[in-house]
Amino acid sequence: MYQCITCQKKLNNTLVDSIICSTCGNNYPILDGIPLFIPEAISSIQGYKIEMEEAKTGLTEMADNLDNLQKQLEATEFYSRIKNTLKAVQTNLNVLQEPYLPIIEFLQKQPENANLLAWSMVKTGTTFLDMLPYFYQDWSGTSDFEKIKNRVCKTITENAVDRESVAVLGAGACGLLHSIADFFEISYGVDLSLPTLLAAKAFIGGKPLTFHLSDADWQKITLTPPKISTKNIHYLATNVNNMPFKNGSLSLIITQYMLDIVSNPIGLAQEIRRVLKPEGLWINFSKPFRSAGDPSILGMRKLDELPPLFNSLGFEVINLENERFNYLNLEKVSDEVDTVNQLVHFFTLRKNKLFEQNEASKQISRFFDPNCSSVWNERPRIVNDRNLIFSQQKSFDGTSSVNESLSISIMGHTFSIPLDFAFLLETIFRAIDGEKNLREIYLIQKNTIGLDEKSFLLLIYIPTFPSVGFYVGWYVWKWCIVWHGGLLQLRVLHVFRSEQSRMLF
Ligand SMILES: C[S@@+](CC[C@H](N)C(=O)[O-])C[C@H]1O[C@@H](n2cnc3c(N)ncnc32)[C@H](O)[C@@H]1O
Q1: Ligand 1 test: best mutation among 258, 259, 468, 472, most atoms within 8 Å of CB?
Q2: Which of 218, 388, 438, 461 could be bridged to 503 by S-S, CB 3.0 to 4.6 A?
Q3: What domains sit in the chain, N to C, each tagged with a CATH number?
Protein backbone atom coordinates (compact mmCIF):
# COMPACT_ATOMS: atom_id res chain seq x y z
CA MET A 1 0.00 0.00 0.00
CA TYR A 2 2.80 2.44 0.91
CA GLN A 3 6.39 3.11 -0.09
CA CYS A 4 9.35 4.07 2.09
CA ILE A 5 9.74 7.86 2.34
CA THR A 6 13.51 7.69 2.16
CA CYS A 7 14.41 4.86 -0.27
CA GLN A 8 11.01 4.78 -2.06
CA LYS A 9 10.86 1.00 -2.10
CA LYS A 10 7.56 -0.80 -1.57
CA LEU A 11 6.61 -1.38 2.07
CA ASN A 12 5.03 -4.68 2.97
CA ASN A 13 3.04 -4.27 6.10
CA THR A 14 3.59 -7.46 7.99
CA LEU A 15 3.41 -6.27 11.62
CA VAL A 16 0.53 -4.78 13.61
CA ASP A 17 2.56 -2.15 15.40
CA SER A 18 5.14 -1.11 12.82
CA ILE A 19 6.07 -1.11 9.17
CA ILE A 20 9.70 -1.91 8.49
CA CYS A 21 11.32 -1.16 5.16
CA SER A 22 13.01 -4.36 4.04
CA THR A 23 15.36 -2.36 1.81
CA CYS A 24 16.72 0.40 4.05
CA GLY A 25 15.53 -0.81 7.46
CA ASN A 26 13.48 2.29 8.30
CA ASN A 27 11.01 1.58 11.05
CA TYR A 28 7.66 3.34 10.91
CA PRO A 29 5.67 2.77 14.11
CA ILE A 30 1.88 2.35 14.05
CA LEU A 31 -0.01 3.88 16.99
CA ASP A 32 -3.66 3.00 17.47
CA GLY A 33 -3.77 2.05 13.81
CA ILE A 34 -2.06 5.23 12.54
CA PRO A 35 1.36 4.80 10.92
CA LEU A 36 3.94 7.55 11.38
CA PHE A 37 5.94 8.09 8.19
CA ILE A 38 8.75 10.49 9.02
CA PRO A 39 12.53 10.07 8.98
CA GLU A 40 13.93 8.71 12.24
CA ALA A 41 10.32 8.10 13.30
CA ILE A 42 11.06 6.28 16.55
CA SER A 43 13.10 9.14 17.96
CA SER A 44 11.16 11.92 16.23
CA ILE A 45 8.00 10.85 18.00
CA GLN A 46 9.39 12.39 21.21
CA GLY A 47 8.59 15.77 19.71
CA TYR A 48 4.89 15.20 20.31
CA LYS A 49 5.48 14.59 23.99
CA ILE A 50 7.49 17.76 24.30
CA GLU A 51 4.85 19.69 22.38
CA MET A 52 2.25 18.41 24.83
CA GLU A 53 4.35 19.28 27.86
CA GLU A 54 4.78 22.85 26.63
CA ALA A 55 1.07 23.29 26.03
CA LYS A 56 0.42 21.72 29.42
CA THR A 57 2.82 24.14 31.11
CA GLY A 58 1.04 27.06 29.46
CA LEU A 59 -2.37 25.89 30.68
CA THR A 60 -1.08 25.06 34.15
CA GLU A 61 0.44 28.53 34.54
CA MET A 62 -2.83 30.03 33.43
CA ALA A 63 -4.79 27.92 35.92
CA ASP A 64 -2.43 29.01 38.74
CA ASN A 65 -2.88 32.67 37.80
CA LEU A 66 -6.64 32.32 37.68
CA ASP A 67 -6.63 30.53 40.99
CA ASN A 68 -4.78 33.45 42.58
CA LEU A 69 -7.09 35.96 40.94
CA GLN A 70 -10.11 34.08 42.17
CA LYS A 71 -8.96 34.67 45.73
CA GLN A 72 -8.09 38.31 45.17
CA LEU A 73 -11.19 39.32 43.23
CA GLU A 74 -13.83 37.35 45.06
CA ALA A 75 -16.18 40.26 45.62
CA THR A 76 -15.91 41.81 42.16
CA GLU A 77 -17.79 41.66 38.87
CA PHE A 78 -14.97 39.51 37.45
CA TYR A 79 -15.43 36.68 39.89
CA SER A 80 -17.84 34.52 37.92
CA ARG A 81 -15.80 34.81 34.70
CA ILE A 82 -12.61 33.93 36.54
CA LYS A 83 -14.28 30.92 38.11
CA ASN A 84 -15.70 29.68 34.79
CA THR A 85 -12.45 30.24 32.96
CA LEU A 86 -10.52 28.35 35.61
CA LYS A 87 -12.85 25.40 35.29
CA ALA A 88 -12.57 25.52 31.50
CA VAL A 89 -8.78 25.63 31.59
CA GLN A 90 -8.70 22.65 33.94
CA THR A 91 -11.00 20.69 31.62
CA ASN A 92 -8.85 21.55 28.62
CA LEU A 93 -5.79 20.28 30.47
CA ASN A 94 -7.32 16.80 30.40
CA VAL A 95 -8.60 17.21 26.86
CA LEU A 96 -5.13 18.19 25.74
CA GLN A 97 -3.46 15.11 27.16
CA GLU A 98 -5.84 12.48 25.93
CA PRO A 99 -4.65 12.06 22.32
CA TYR A 100 -1.03 12.11 23.47
CA LEU A 101 -1.53 9.09 25.74
CA PRO A 102 -0.84 6.42 23.09
CA ILE A 103 2.32 8.33 22.20
CA ILE A 104 3.52 8.44 25.80
CA GLU A 105 2.71 4.76 26.22
CA PHE A 106 4.67 3.98 23.07
CA LEU A 107 7.67 5.97 24.29
CA GLN A 108 7.65 4.22 27.64
CA LYS A 109 8.29 0.94 25.84
CA GLN A 110 11.23 2.35 23.88
CA PRO A 111 14.79 2.36 25.15
CA GLU A 112 16.06 5.88 25.91
CA ASN A 113 17.13 7.20 22.56
CA ALA A 114 19.80 9.85 22.59
CA ASN A 115 19.26 10.70 18.95
CA LEU A 116 17.43 13.99 19.23
CA LEU A 117 18.17 15.07 15.70
CA ALA A 118 15.01 14.18 14.04
CA TRP A 119 12.22 14.76 16.47
CA SER A 120 11.79 18.36 15.38
CA MET A 121 10.30 16.93 12.23
CA VAL A 122 6.92 16.44 13.88
CA LYS A 123 6.36 20.15 14.47
CA THR A 124 3.49 21.67 12.53
CA GLY A 125 3.14 24.80 14.60
CA THR A 126 -0.25 23.59 15.86
CA THR A 127 -0.74 21.47 18.95
CA PHE A 128 -3.90 19.48 19.41
CA LEU A 129 -5.12 22.37 21.57
CA ASP A 130 -4.78 24.77 18.64
CA MET A 131 -6.86 22.40 16.55
CA LEU A 132 -9.93 22.51 18.81
CA PRO A 133 -11.58 25.38 16.87
CA TYR A 134 -11.14 23.28 13.72
CA PHE A 135 -12.96 20.39 15.40
CA TYR A 136 -15.76 22.80 16.20
CA GLN A 137 -15.77 24.17 12.64
CA ASP A 138 -15.91 20.73 11.03
CA TRP A 139 -18.23 18.89 13.36
CA SER A 140 -20.81 21.30 14.77
CA GLY A 141 -22.69 21.94 11.52
CA THR A 142 -21.30 25.42 10.86
CA SER A 143 -22.66 26.93 7.65
CA ASP A 144 -19.13 27.81 6.57
CA PHE A 145 -18.04 24.21 6.68
CA GLU A 146 -21.22 23.10 4.88
CA LYS A 147 -20.46 25.59 2.13
CA ILE A 148 -17.02 24.23 1.41
CA LYS A 149 -18.14 20.64 1.82
CA ASN A 150 -20.90 21.14 -0.78
CA ARG A 151 -18.50 22.91 -3.11
CA VAL A 152 -15.99 20.06 -2.93
CA CYS A 153 -18.66 17.35 -3.27
CA LYS A 154 -20.08 19.08 -6.35
CA THR A 155 -16.63 19.30 -7.91
CA ILE A 156 -16.01 15.61 -7.26
CA THR A 157 -19.36 14.64 -8.78
CA GLU A 158 -18.74 16.75 -11.88
CA ASN A 159 -15.09 16.01 -12.50
CA ALA A 160 -13.75 12.88 -10.82
CA VAL A 161 -13.92 10.03 -13.28
CA ASP A 162 -11.86 7.70 -11.14
CA ARG A 163 -13.31 7.03 -7.68
CA GLU A 164 -10.72 4.66 -6.31
CA SER A 165 -8.75 6.69 -3.77
CA VAL A 166 -8.58 10.16 -2.21
CA ALA A 167 -6.16 11.82 0.20
CA VAL A 168 -6.95 14.97 2.18
CA LEU A 169 -3.68 16.70 3.03
CA GLY A 170 -3.44 18.54 6.35
CA ALA A 171 -6.72 16.82 7.19
CA GLY A 172 -6.80 18.26 10.73
CA ALA A 173 -10.14 17.52 12.39
CA CYS A 174 -10.97 15.32 9.36
CA GLY A 175 -14.47 16.70 8.77
CA LEU A 176 -13.91 17.17 5.06
CA LEU A 177 -12.27 13.76 4.79
CA HIS A 178 -15.30 12.14 6.38
CA SER A 179 -17.70 14.06 4.15
CA ILE A 180 -16.13 12.91 0.91
CA ALA A 181 -15.07 9.40 1.93
CA ASP A 182 -18.26 7.83 0.57
CA PHE A 183 -17.33 8.86 -2.95
CA PHE A 184 -14.24 6.64 -2.89
CA GLU A 185 -13.26 3.04 -2.25
CA ILE A 186 -10.47 4.14 0.04
CA SER A 187 -9.64 7.49 1.64
CA TYR A 188 -6.60 8.78 3.46
CA GLY A 189 -6.38 11.51 6.09
CA VAL A 190 -2.84 12.89 5.97
CA ASP A 191 -1.49 15.18 8.67
CA LEU A 192 1.82 15.61 10.42
CA SER A 193 0.10 16.05 13.76
CA LEU A 194 -0.31 12.49 15.02
CA PRO A 195 -2.23 13.66 18.14
CA THR A 196 -4.76 15.49 15.96
CA LEU A 197 -5.27 12.40 13.83
CA LEU A 198 -5.58 10.18 16.89
CA ALA A 199 -8.26 12.51 18.26
CA ALA A 200 -10.09 12.72 14.92
CA LYS A 201 -9.99 8.94 14.48
CA ALA A 202 -11.36 8.33 18.00
CA PHE A 203 -14.10 10.90 17.40
CA ILE A 204 -15.13 9.50 14.02
CA GLY A 205 -15.02 6.07 15.63
CA GLY A 206 -17.75 7.10 18.07
CA LYS A 207 -16.14 8.91 21.01
CA PRO A 208 -17.77 12.29 21.79
CA LEU A 209 -15.44 15.24 22.26
CA THR A 210 -15.99 17.88 24.94
CA PHE A 211 -13.75 20.91 25.34
CA HIS A 212 -13.79 24.65 25.94
CA LEU A 213 -13.06 27.19 23.23
CA SER A 214 -10.64 29.80 24.50
CA ASP A 215 -11.41 32.14 21.59
CA ALA A 216 -15.11 32.02 22.37
CA ASP A 217 -15.15 33.05 25.98
CA TRP A 218 -14.13 29.57 27.06
CA GLN A 219 -17.59 28.26 26.25
CA LYS A 220 -18.14 24.52 26.54
CA ILE A 221 -18.55 22.56 23.32
CA THR A 222 -19.69 18.98 23.07
CA LEU A 223 -19.37 17.37 19.67
CA THR A 224 -21.36 14.27 18.78
CA PRO A 225 -19.57 11.74 16.59
CA PRO A 226 -20.99 11.01 13.16
CA LYS A 227 -23.15 7.93 12.77
CA ILE A 228 -21.14 4.75 12.41
CA SER A 229 -20.44 4.07 8.78
CA THR A 230 -18.52 1.60 6.73
CA LYS A 231 -16.32 4.27 5.22
CA ASN A 232 -12.87 2.95 4.42
CA ILE A 233 -10.78 5.70 6.00
CA HIS A 234 -7.06 5.37 6.71
CA TYR A 235 -5.13 7.93 8.70
CA LEU A 236 -1.43 8.52 8.30
CA ALA A 237 0.94 10.92 10.00
CA THR A 238 3.45 12.23 7.54
CA ASN A 239 4.70 15.43 6.05
CA VAL A 240 2.77 16.45 2.95
CA ASN A 241 6.03 17.33 1.22
CA ASN A 242 7.24 13.74 1.44
CA MET A 243 4.38 11.27 1.45
CA PRO A 244 4.56 7.46 1.42
CA PHE A 245 2.16 7.08 -1.51
CA LYS A 246 3.45 5.39 -4.63
CA ASN A 247 3.86 7.33 -7.86
CA GLY A 248 0.61 7.67 -9.80
CA SER A 249 -1.49 5.95 -7.15
CA LEU A 250 -4.28 8.35 -6.08
CA SER A 251 -7.42 9.48 -7.89
CA LEU A 252 -7.86 12.76 -5.98
CA ILE A 253 -5.96 15.04 -3.62
CA ILE A 254 -7.65 17.73 -1.54
CA THR A 255 -5.83 20.58 0.16
CA GLN A 256 -7.86 22.77 2.51
CA TYR A 257 -6.02 25.64 4.19
CA MET A 258 -2.76 23.89 3.40
CA LEU A 259 -1.19 25.37 0.26
CA ASP A 260 -0.95 28.74 1.99
CA ILE A 261 0.93 27.44 5.00
CA VAL A 262 3.66 25.45 3.29
CA SER A 263 6.88 27.35 2.74
CA ASN A 264 7.42 25.57 -0.55
CA PRO A 265 4.11 25.40 -2.43
CA ILE A 266 5.89 24.40 -5.63
CA GLY A 267 7.44 21.44 -3.83
CA LEU A 268 4.01 20.46 -2.56
CA ALA A 269 2.51 20.76 -6.06
CA GLN A 270 5.27 18.50 -7.41
CA GLU A 271 4.67 15.95 -4.66
CA ILE A 272 0.93 16.04 -5.38
CA ARG A 273 1.59 15.52 -9.06
CA ARG A 274 3.86 12.59 -8.30
CA VAL A 275 1.24 10.71 -6.27
CA LEU A 276 -1.72 11.44 -8.56
CA LYS A 277 -2.75 8.97 -11.22
CA PRO A 278 -2.56 10.17 -14.83
CA GLU A 279 -5.52 12.55 -15.13
CA GLY A 280 -6.01 12.52 -11.35
CA LEU A 281 -7.57 15.61 -9.75
CA TRP A 282 -6.33 18.14 -7.22
CA ILE A 283 -8.97 20.26 -5.46
CA ASN A 284 -7.66 23.17 -3.43
CA PHE A 285 -9.37 25.50 -0.99
CA SER A 286 -6.67 27.62 0.62
CA LYS A 287 -5.75 31.25 1.11
CA PRO A 288 -3.64 32.77 -1.71
CA PHE A 289 0.01 31.77 -1.62
CA ARG A 290 3.24 32.82 -3.26
CA SER A 291 6.21 30.78 -4.29
CA ALA A 292 9.78 31.52 -3.32
CA GLY A 293 10.71 32.85 -6.74
CA ASP A 294 7.82 35.31 -7.00
CA PRO A 295 8.59 39.05 -6.75
CA SER A 296 7.91 39.62 -3.09
CA ILE A 297 6.82 43.22 -3.58
CA LEU A 298 3.69 41.95 -5.33
CA GLY A 299 2.46 39.97 -2.34
CA MET A 300 0.43 36.82 -2.87
CA ARG A 301 -0.39 35.43 -6.30
CA LYS A 302 -3.57 36.61 -7.97
CA LEU A 303 -5.96 34.11 -9.49
CA ASP A 304 -4.96 34.83 -13.09
CA GLU A 305 -1.31 34.22 -12.25
CA LEU A 306 -1.97 30.62 -11.25
CA PRO A 307 -2.60 28.89 -14.63
CA PRO A 308 0.89 29.53 -16.07
CA LEU A 309 2.45 28.21 -12.87
CA PHE A 310 0.32 25.09 -12.70
CA ASN A 311 0.66 24.40 -16.43
CA SER A 312 4.42 24.50 -16.03
CA LEU A 313 4.12 22.00 -13.19
CA GLY A 314 2.13 19.54 -15.30
CA PHE A 315 -1.50 20.37 -14.45
CA GLU A 316 -4.45 21.50 -16.57
CA VAL A 317 -6.77 23.99 -14.94
CA ILE A 318 -10.39 22.83 -14.75
CA ASN A 319 -11.70 25.74 -12.70
CA LEU A 320 -10.33 28.60 -10.68
CA GLU A 321 -12.36 30.94 -8.49
CA ASN A 322 -12.14 33.45 -5.70
CA GLU A 323 -14.28 32.40 -2.74
CA ARG A 324 -14.94 33.92 0.67
CA PHE A 325 -14.76 31.90 3.85
CA ASN A 326 -15.53 32.76 7.46
CA TYR A 327 -12.49 31.24 9.08
CA LEU A 328 -13.07 29.50 12.42
CA ASN A 329 -16.31 31.38 12.91
CA LEU A 330 -17.31 31.14 16.58
CA GLU A 331 -20.27 33.56 16.41
CA LYS A 332 -22.75 30.90 17.39
CA VAL A 333 -20.79 30.05 20.51
CA SER A 334 -20.35 33.52 21.91
CA ASP A 335 -21.77 36.97 21.12
CA GLU A 336 -18.47 38.65 21.83
CA VAL A 337 -16.17 37.28 19.15
CA ASP A 338 -14.72 38.72 15.98
CA THR A 339 -15.21 37.00 12.65
CA VAL A 340 -12.58 36.77 9.97
CA ASN A 341 -13.86 36.71 6.42
CA GLN A 342 -11.06 35.51 4.19
CA LEU A 343 -10.36 35.41 0.49
CA VAL A 344 -9.78 31.84 -0.58
CA HIS A 345 -8.57 30.44 -3.89
CA PHE A 346 -10.70 27.53 -4.92
CA PHE A 347 -9.34 25.56 -7.85
CA THR A 348 -9.54 22.17 -9.51
CA LEU A 349 -6.59 20.88 -11.52
CA ARG A 350 -6.07 17.72 -13.52
CA LYS A 351 -2.72 16.02 -13.81
CA ASN A 352 -1.61 16.37 -17.40
CA LYS A 353 -0.61 12.91 -18.49
CA LEU A 354 1.33 14.20 -21.50
CA PHE A 355 3.61 16.31 -19.32
CA GLU A 356 7.06 14.77 -19.11
CA GLN A 357 8.61 14.50 -15.71
CA ASN A 358 11.14 12.13 -14.28
CA GLU A 359 9.29 10.63 -11.39
CA ALA A 360 11.64 7.72 -10.84
CA SER A 361 13.24 9.41 -7.87
CA LYS A 362 11.89 12.10 -5.59
CA GLN A 363 14.04 15.20 -5.50
CA ILE A 364 13.85 15.28 -1.75
CA SER A 365 15.52 11.84 -1.45
CA ARG A 366 18.94 13.34 -2.00
CA PHE A 367 18.96 14.64 1.56
CA PHE A 368 18.90 11.12 2.94
CA ASP A 369 22.10 10.03 1.26
CA PRO A 370 25.36 11.59 2.51
CA ASN A 371 27.20 9.55 -0.15
CA CYS A 372 25.40 11.33 -2.96
CA SER A 373 28.10 13.70 -4.20
CA SER A 374 25.79 15.97 -6.19
CA VAL A 375 23.81 17.10 -3.15
CA TRP A 376 26.97 18.50 -1.57
CA ASN A 377 27.57 20.67 -4.65
CA GLU A 378 24.21 22.40 -4.39
CA ARG A 379 24.26 26.07 -3.49
CA PRO A 380 21.37 27.12 -1.29
CA ARG A 381 20.05 30.64 -1.56
CA ILE A 382 18.14 32.85 0.78
CA VAL A 383 14.61 33.64 -0.29
CA ASN A 384 13.99 37.31 -0.70
CA ASP A 385 11.61 38.70 1.84
CA ARG A 386 11.53 35.66 4.09
CA ASN A 387 13.23 37.31 6.97
CA LEU A 388 14.02 35.39 10.04
CA ILE A 389 13.73 38.08 12.66
CA PHE A 390 15.20 37.75 16.11
CA SER A 391 14.05 40.13 18.77
CA GLN A 392 15.16 40.56 22.29
CA GLN A 393 12.39 41.47 24.69
CA LYS A 394 12.58 42.97 28.14
CA SER A 395 9.63 42.97 30.43
CA PHE A 396 9.25 44.73 33.76
CA ASP A 397 6.99 43.13 36.30
CA GLY A 398 7.13 45.72 39.02
CA THR A 399 9.98 44.12 40.89
CA SER A 400 13.57 45.23 40.49
CA SER A 401 14.26 42.37 38.09
CA VAL A 402 14.06 42.58 34.32
CA ASN A 403 12.83 39.53 32.43
CA GLU A 404 14.68 39.04 29.20
CA SER A 405 13.54 36.70 26.48
CA LEU A 406 14.19 36.13 22.83
CA SER A 407 11.63 35.62 20.17
CA ILE A 408 11.84 34.72 16.55
CA SER A 409 9.41 35.64 13.79
CA ILE A 410 9.05 33.89 10.50
CA MET A 411 6.30 34.48 7.97
CA GLY A 412 4.13 36.06 10.60
CA HIS A 413 4.64 33.35 13.23
CA THR A 414 6.28 34.56 16.42
CA PHE A 415 7.50 32.26 19.14
CA SER A 416 10.05 32.40 21.90
CA ILE A 417 13.38 30.69 21.57
CA PRO A 418 16.06 29.65 23.99
CA LEU A 419 19.29 31.60 23.69
CA ASP A 420 21.34 28.61 22.60
CA PHE A 421 19.08 27.95 19.72
CA ALA A 422 20.19 31.01 17.83
CA PHE A 423 23.77 29.97 17.43
CA LEU A 424 23.31 27.29 14.82
CA LEU A 425 20.78 29.40 12.96
CA GLU A 426 23.24 32.24 12.82
CA THR A 427 26.11 30.01 11.79
CA ILE A 428 24.28 28.29 8.98
CA PHE A 429 22.18 31.13 7.70
CA ARG A 430 25.12 33.51 7.75
CA ALA A 431 27.10 31.04 5.63
CA ILE A 432 24.42 30.91 2.94
CA ASP A 433 25.39 33.49 0.35
CA GLY A 434 24.34 31.85 -2.90
CA GLU A 435 28.03 31.05 -3.56
CA LYS A 436 28.96 28.44 -0.99
CA ASN A 437 27.81 24.92 -1.63
CA LEU A 438 26.42 22.58 0.98
CA ARG A 439 29.80 20.93 1.55
CA GLU A 440 31.37 24.32 2.37
CA ILE A 441 28.52 25.27 4.66
CA TYR A 442 28.71 21.88 6.30
CA LEU A 443 32.42 22.42 7.00
CA ILE A 444 31.81 25.91 8.43
CA GLN A 445 29.41 24.54 11.02
CA LYS A 446 31.48 21.41 11.64
CA ASN A 447 34.02 23.12 13.86
CA THR A 448 31.60 25.10 15.94
CA ILE A 449 28.36 23.14 15.94
CA GLY A 450 29.54 19.64 15.14
CA LEU A 451 26.67 18.21 13.11
CA ASP A 452 27.78 15.09 11.21
CA GLU A 453 27.04 14.70 7.50
CA LYS A 454 23.81 12.77 7.93
CA SER A 455 22.45 15.19 10.51
CA PHE A 456 23.46 18.22 8.50
CA LEU A 457 21.63 16.96 5.42
CA LEU A 458 18.62 16.19 7.54
CA LEU A 459 18.68 19.76 8.78
CA ILE A 460 18.75 21.03 5.21
CA TYR A 461 15.90 18.66 4.35
CA ILE A 462 13.75 20.04 7.15
CA PRO A 463 13.56 23.59 5.76
CA THR A 464 11.93 22.27 2.64
CA PHE A 465 8.95 21.66 4.90
CA PRO A 466 6.29 24.10 6.00
CA SER A 467 6.58 26.24 9.07
CA VAL A 468 10.28 26.36 8.48
CA GLY A 469 11.03 28.25 11.61
CA PHE A 470 9.51 25.65 13.79
CA TYR A 471 11.41 22.83 12.25
CA VAL A 472 14.73 24.53 12.15
CA GLY A 473 14.15 25.96 15.56
CA TRP A 474 13.47 22.81 17.44
CA TYR A 475 16.12 20.90 15.70
CA VAL A 476 18.80 23.44 16.26
CA TRP A 477 17.87 24.15 19.80
CA LYS A 478 18.17 20.52 20.78
CA TRP A 479 21.54 20.23 19.13
CA CYS A 480 22.90 23.24 20.87
CA ILE A 481 21.77 21.92 24.18
CA VAL A 482 23.27 18.54 23.53
CA TRP A 483 26.58 19.77 22.28
CA HIS A 484 27.15 23.02 24.01
CA GLY A 485 25.07 23.22 27.13
CA GLY A 486 24.81 26.78 28.38
CA LEU A 487 28.28 27.82 27.32
CA LEU A 488 27.20 29.64 24.22
CA GLN A 489 24.89 32.07 25.86
CA LEU A 490 27.19 35.05 25.92
CA ARG A 491 28.14 34.66 22.35
CA VAL A 492 24.55 34.25 21.27
CA LEU A 493 23.46 37.33 23.13
CA HIS A 494 26.14 39.24 21.35
CA VAL A 495 24.84 38.04 18.03
CA PHE A 496 21.32 39.00 18.94
CA ARG A 497 22.04 42.56 19.82
CA SER A 498 22.64 43.56 16.26
CA GLU A 499 21.74 40.83 13.86
CA GLN A 500 18.92 39.89 11.66
CA SER A 501 19.11 36.73 9.68
CA ARG A 502 17.10 35.27 6.90
CA MET A 503 15.39 32.10 6.18
CA LEU A 504 16.75 29.29 4.12
CA PHE A 505 14.56 28.05 1.33
C1 LIG B 1 -4.56 25.38 9.20
S2 LIG B 1 -4.83 23.70 9.70
C3 LIG B 1 -6.09 23.27 8.55
C4 LIG B 1 -6.80 22.00 8.91
C5 LIG B 1 -7.88 21.58 7.88
N6 LIG B 1 -7.30 21.39 6.58
C7 LIG B 1 -8.95 22.63 7.85
O8 LIG B 1 -8.91 23.52 6.98
O9 LIG B 1 -9.85 22.57 8.69
C10 LIG B 1 -3.38 22.98 9.04
C11 LIG B 1 -3.26 21.48 9.28
O12 LIG B 1 -2.14 21.05 8.53
C13 LIG B 1 -1.29 20.27 9.34
N14 LIG B 1 0.07 20.47 8.81
C15 LIG B 1 0.82 21.60 8.89
N16 LIG B 1 1.98 21.40 8.24
C17 LIG B 1 1.93 20.13 7.75
C18 LIG B 1 2.82 19.35 6.98
N19 LIG B 1 3.97 19.83 6.58
N20 LIG B 1 2.47 18.10 6.65
C21 LIG B 1 1.29 17.58 7.05
N22 LIG B 1 0.40 18.28 7.77
C23 LIG B 1 0.72 19.54 8.11
C24 LIG B 1 -1.50 20.76 10.74
O25 LIG B 1 -1.15 19.77 11.67
C26 LIG B 1 -2.98 21.08 10.72
O27 LIG B 1 -3.75 19.95 11.03
Answers
A1: 258
A2: 388
A3: 123-363 (3.40.50.150), 369-504 (no CATH)
